[in-house]
Amino acid sequence: MFLRYRIIIIVLITLFAVYNICIYSTKESSTFIKLSSQAVSGQQLWQENNCWSCHQIYGLGGYLGPDLTNVISHPSKGSQYVKAFLNSGIKSMPKFNFSEEEKNAIVSYLKHIDSTGYYPNYNAVFKPTGWVELKYKYNDRNEK
Fold first, then answer.
1. What does 23-64 look like in DSSP terms, one character per residue?
2. 3.40.50.150, 1.10.760.10, 3.10.270.10, 3.40.50.300: which CATH number matches 35-117?
3. pTM higher than 0.85, yes or no?
4. Which of the two residues, 2 and 135, has the higher pLDDT score?
């Protein structure tokens, strides 16, 4: 009886190991995009001013402010929209005193985020392997 349980556990561990090797050794999600130095400065400002506590990127973050994943490419918003809110504030958003260079850095960071994908992504495809295939904006540009 004890030998039977041992064999079952060994088979389960082996299956688990093979499954993990198959899933985590695929090259599907190995595309890296580097941030420009200006976008890195924007990311640092984003983190230093704790923007995550109110705003979301790809649905992750606080819920007091709007999701800013695609704010730059939104037809009725864009760079000037973001810059206006950064220094004027509205309702519960604090009034920041960013310099023009700092505002440009934050906009550059948000442009980078906007260029990476869509949120919410209605064209997601769930694969049998467990991975989710998303439609990325930078792939759209490369395919044309």
1. HHT-STT----PPPHHHHHHHHHHHHTTGGGT-EETTEE-SS
2. 1.10.760.10
3. no
4. 2
